Amino acid sequence: MSCPLLMVSGLARADDLVLDRFGGYLDSLRTQAGIPGLAAVVVSGSDIAWERGFGNQDLARSLPVRPDTPFHLDGLTQTLAASLLLRCVEEGRLSLDDRVGRFWRSVPEPEATIRQLLTHTDASGAFRYRAERLDPLGYVIAACTGESYRSRLAQVFDTLAMINSVPGPDAAQQPPDAVFTPPLLARYRSVLDGLATPYAVDSRKRAWVSQYTVSTLLASAGVVSTARDLAQFVLGLGRGLLLRPETLAQAWRAPLGPDGRTLPHGLGWFVQTYNGETVVWQFGMQANASSSLVVTVPGRGLTLILLANSDGLSRPFPLAGGDVTTSVFAKLFLALFVR
User: Fold this and answer.
1) How sure is the predictor about 18, in pLDDT bands with cuts at 50, 70 and 90?
2) 71-72 and 224-225: which strand pairing?
3) Which residue range(s) make up the domain with 210?
4) How many domains does the chain have?
């Protein structure tokens, strides 16, 4: 898609030339990282402003990546889970300070609060990022909504017209019911049949077919979606379809640690500052299979979405430490559009 990118809040118009340059740099970084296929979308204001596919979703068949190619979202799944939980908090059904053991006793950290898990902090208030700590939150979502986490997520996808999104790689195996109707299950099967082939890549950038290891839906991983569909989630957040603006603002505010220092992770999203702008972001990775990155600059109404079929978007960079500028992909985007 070739179209002008109109920005807000002080950023001047970036025309097709700048977007073409961005696409060229992005593809160069993809090649240097040995990523077989990459889908990219830029959301600006209230619409998708630019989208491209680079490389191949299947090398053996020379199938190119498109913006609607399905990928594993991996760690980006936690932003969806966080949105469901925060909606429950809005409605007074939950408190962020509820302990997860209240909802399911057999969890690794029954005394941990919802807030601690969403912000990746421990009982002392210290930050420690481990995405799998969020998995018990699936039980919390079920207790709050009165339906399974998978069912609730499927309804969100329907609300946002995320027609190529699947709540877990095993979703098509669900028995038909009022939510998972036969036509919906057939659509899930079709999406999963088109899932990008996962690749492992060695130090010489040689790629070979690997396997996805995530086999079900978790709060930390498991959603299969496309860059174009994920843009609908971003737009839905911006339009207040999922959360009230004040709730989203709370989620996108960096908390303070016990020593008064700013911590790097809000309620479901990393939060930091770049050139005086708040930057909200999240990443995902399935070793030797897939990776993902979303970077939002709320003050500019601007979001970058990247999905890949190797771990090259995330593995080379210490993103779990809380600094998105360690990623050359994020750094390129910020340097071009947040000046």
Assistant:
1) confident
2) antiparallel
3) 16-337
4) 1
